[in-house]
């Protein structure tokens, strides 16, 4: 689902945009150029619909501001003046296309989709170029949160320091760790992954450090641990928060001086290993509960990188869907070539608790169940999507008969008040829960007449 910033001083036009485009796209509505520029400072937009004649700064003047800022967001100007001169002037100042008021619905949809399609192509090309440049060809996306993580990973490639990758399950922490290793000076040496949660607690030390023959019941022969296998290269400790406390103590020593003893051994072993650690756990809670050593956390948290969840980078979903279609189509022998924008919008509407991994599984499932279809549209998704979409609060019948603007404001007021209540009225925390910034939340609160603490009713009907 792509984001459109629509700027027009006429409320009726803004409402028309909401009705025509709101189901398929995320809409940001602004009543003048100044408000539009403030919105752009806080939110990414894939397209700007810009009125020419407005109080204060005109649309043409805003085009100049965008050009001076280096903003490359495509702009479609909407003018009430049916003259070629205005359109030509707008195009000279950087507009991609134009519409004349009163616009035809089909023409609006055609121009918007044409411009967004071109933008999708440009962003995908930029994403591929950036991935090739940084060596992240297996990480798909071009959103700001992902680019921030990849930028930090690129810095980690240039040094030998320990890396801690945090993020929810399925966000691609293991893929990022592998990319960091193969982009580093150790690329020709071993890359050894070890998932701490997949090994019985009694065997973690043996798996990590190796053991001597007879060290414990069942140790019938000597075994080399992952630490020695990774000597000269990289050891990736996935889900390090699940490592037993005793093994954490021994790992701490390796991080300090590069030495350890095998289980049952008396000879000190020295290794040269670069550590990349990953976890989906909250370290503050784990330290407080005594399941992870605080000094170990400080040792591994040298270069922190956070992999954003998919719900924080929904604009990457079209790129990911296209990638997974190309990846799985030959394997499942499907004729599918693409998903329609409506189908992609449906996928973008989910929160994806399993993140990229869950999205990939769902796309593969859709391909298998629709193998003979050339194009996947919304009806083909029926019964195949996860049941993880956010649900609206009860009582929607209270909206019956209300003007769209009033109903929207009531719902926004309800959601903001609820988020503030859950966050103990800490605005930064409430903004994070709503997937926005504190500045945008404060702006919406002022716009809706909510006090600093969100004072106002929580009822949908009021």
How would you explain this protein's 3D organization?
Helix content is 45%, strand content 13%. The protein is an alpha/beta fold and 462 residues long. The chain folds into four domains: 3-121, Rossmann fold; 158-308, Rossmann fold (3-Layer(aba) Sandwich), CATH 3.40.50; 311-381, Helicase, Ruva Protein, domain 3 (Orthogonal Bundle), CATH 1.10.8.60; 396-448, Orthogonal Bundle (Arc Repressor Mutant, subunit A). Helix 3 (59-69) links the parallel strand 3 (47-51) and strand 4 (75-79).
Distance between the termini: 31 Å
CATH architecture term of the largest domain: 3-Layer(aba) Sandwich
Q: Number of DSSP strands?
A: 16
CATH class of the largest domain: Alpha Beta
The main sheet orders its strands as 2-1-3-4-5
- Number of structurally distinct domains: 4
Main sheet overview: 5 strands, parallel
Radius of gyration: 27 Å
Q: In one word, what is the shape? A: elongated
**Low-confidence sequence ranges:** 388-397, 456-462
Main structural class: alpha/beta
Helical fraction equals: 40-55%
Keywords:
Rossmann fold, Helicase, Ruva Protein, domain 3, 5-stranded parallel beta sheet, 18 helices, 16 strands
Write the layout of secondary structure elements.
Layout lengths: L2 E5 L3 H11 L4 E5 L2 H10 L4 E5 L7 H11 L5 E5 L4 H9 L4 E4 L4 H30 L9 H14 L5 E4 L6 H10 L8 E5 L8 H6 E2 L11 E2 L1 H4 L4 E5 L6 H13 L1 E3 L6 E3 L3 E6 L3 H7 L4 H7 L2 E4 L10 H16 L5 E2 L1 H8 L6 H15 L5 E2 L27 H19 L4 H7 L4 H11 L14
Parallel strand pairs: 1-2, 1-3, 3-4, 4-5, 6-13, 6-14, 7-10, 10-13, 15-16
Antiparallel strand pairs: 8-9, 11-12
């Amino acid at each position: 689902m792509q984001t459109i910033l629509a700027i027009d001083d006429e409320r009726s036009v803004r409402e028309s945009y909401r009705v025509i485009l709101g189901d398929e796209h995320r809409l940001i509505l602004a009543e003048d150029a100044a408000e539009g520029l403030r919105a752009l400072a806080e939110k990414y937009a894939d397209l700007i619909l810009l009125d020419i004649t407005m109080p204060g700064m005109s649309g043409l003047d805003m085009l100049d501001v965008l050009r001076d800022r280096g903003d490359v967001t495509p702009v479609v100007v909407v003018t009430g003046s049916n003259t070629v001169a205005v359109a030509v002037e707008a195009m000279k100042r950087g507009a991609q296309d134009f519409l004349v008021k009163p616009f035809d619905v089909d023409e609006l949809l055609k121009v918007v989709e044409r411009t967004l399609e071109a933008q999708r192509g440009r962003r995908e090309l930029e994403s591929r170029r950036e991935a090739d440049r940084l060596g992240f060809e297996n990480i798909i996306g071009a959103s700001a949160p992902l680019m921030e993580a990849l930028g930090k990973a690129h810095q980690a490639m240039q040094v030998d320091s320990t890396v801690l990758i945090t993020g929810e399950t399925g966000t691609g922490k293991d893929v990022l760790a592998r990319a960091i290793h193969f982009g580093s000076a150790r690329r020709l040496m071993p890359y050894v992954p070890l998932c701490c949660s997949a090994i019985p607690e009694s065997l973690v030390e043996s798996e990590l450090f190796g053991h001597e023959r007879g060290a414990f019941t069942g140790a019938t022969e000597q075994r080399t641990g992952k630490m020695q296998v990774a000597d000269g290269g990289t050891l990736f400790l996935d889900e390090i928060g699940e490592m037993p406390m005793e093994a954490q103590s021994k790992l701490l020593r390796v991080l300090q001086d590069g030495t350890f003893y095998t289980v049952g051994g008396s000879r000190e072993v020295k290794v040269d290993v670069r550590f990349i650690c990953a976890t989906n756990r909250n370290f503050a809670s784990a330290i407080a509960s005594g399941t992870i050593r605080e000094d170990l956390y400080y040792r591994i948290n040298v270069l922190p990188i956070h992999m954003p969840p998919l719900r924080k980078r929904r604009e990457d979903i079209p790129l990911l869907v296209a990638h997974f279609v190309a990846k799985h189509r030959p394997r499942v022998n499907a004729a599918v070539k693409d998903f329609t924008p409506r189908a992609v919008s449906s996928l973008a509407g989910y929160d994806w608790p399993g993140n990229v991994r869950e999205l990939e599984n769902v796309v593969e499932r859709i391909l298998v169940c629709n193998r003979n279809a050339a194009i996947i549209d919304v009806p083909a998704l029926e019964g195949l999507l996860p049941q993880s979409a956010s649900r609206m609060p009860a009582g929607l019948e209270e909206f019956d008969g209300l003007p769209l603007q009033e109903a929207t404001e009531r719902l926004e007021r309800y959601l903001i008040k609820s988020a503030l209540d859950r966050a103990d009225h800490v605005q930064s925390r409430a903004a994070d829960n709503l997937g926005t910034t504190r500045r945008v939340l404060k702006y919406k609160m002022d716009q809706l007449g909510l006090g600093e603490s969100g004072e106002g009713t929580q009822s949908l009907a009021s």
